[in-house]
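Standup notes
- DV: blocked on the single-chain target, sequence here:
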Amino acid sequence: MSDATWTPADLLKMNYDAWKAWTVQSAVVLGIFTALDKLKDEATVDSLAKAIQSDRRATEKMVTALTALELLKRDGDEISLTDFSRRHLSEESRDYLGYILVHMHQINPNWTRLARCVKSGGNARSLPEPSPEEIKDLEASRHRHFILGMYSVAVLQARTVTAALDLKGHKRLLDLGGGPGTYAAYFCAANPGLKAVVFDRPPSEAVALEILDRLGVRDRVSFQGGDFLSDPIPGDFDVVWMSQVIHGENPENAALLVKRGVEALRPGGEILIQEFVLDDDRRGPLGPALFTLNMLVQTPGGAAYAYSEIVDMLKGAGINKISEIKGALPPGNRILTGFKD
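- DV (later): unblocked, structure below
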């Protein structure tokens, strides 16, 4: 790829592609393909979880991702191998390639230390463990880069999303769990009569204010810190926007978060939820299927939810007029909308 052909999407895809490799490597380490080969036509998510002695819900997420990668076939709860995975990923086959994949899996942690190896000139195993002070600095850096990373991703599609939404005539918008407030800033820039509140955890405030200053909307977008599951949330908004928030929560808390968003609306107000959304058959799309594994390793109970699950959360919060807003969104991204009676 030459310099002239690189795009921001290429750069992000290159990094997300690592998730594909880690998913397949982990599936081989778990013995998923070999177990399915032995189960033959009797394989289900339940029988697979029993065969590899794994958690059922986590196994479901892995099966969804492997199906989206076209290494498994799925019909409801029944799962089976593809011809390729039977030949190259089952230890029952003489063409098994799993040994090298397990080796790659075992050396992955060393690659996460590459930057430190370059600085020191030593190998990963020779690096000293971080000091308590370094660990503290790392945690602070991690949150800052998470919030700025959300800005980097959101800014790539904010114009497209803004163009897809009709916010004309609205006066007050709540960006619930909005992190750096990127979307709130773009919505206000495109709608001169609109003001917004970004509600997120207090550690996000310093970065959010930097971003709002950078985008020139500090006078129309304010930040309020708090825990969106337990702290008071301001109300009487025309619009509540929730972008990529509920996937960080378990099903109960995700439903609670949607309910709290609806409660912040005035009667007749609109809730908008943008998420990585799985198809109801849980065969894909690939992006959300891999992202649900990212939530498995990063959060206590988060997940990419299926379309019908998000609809049920909205209905449970009292929203009945539910539809989907179409737009040129990244694959797997969908925006659901509904109005409060």
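- Follow-up: Strands lie at 72-75, 78-81, 172-176, 195-200, 221-225, 237-243, 265-276, 319-325, 333-340.
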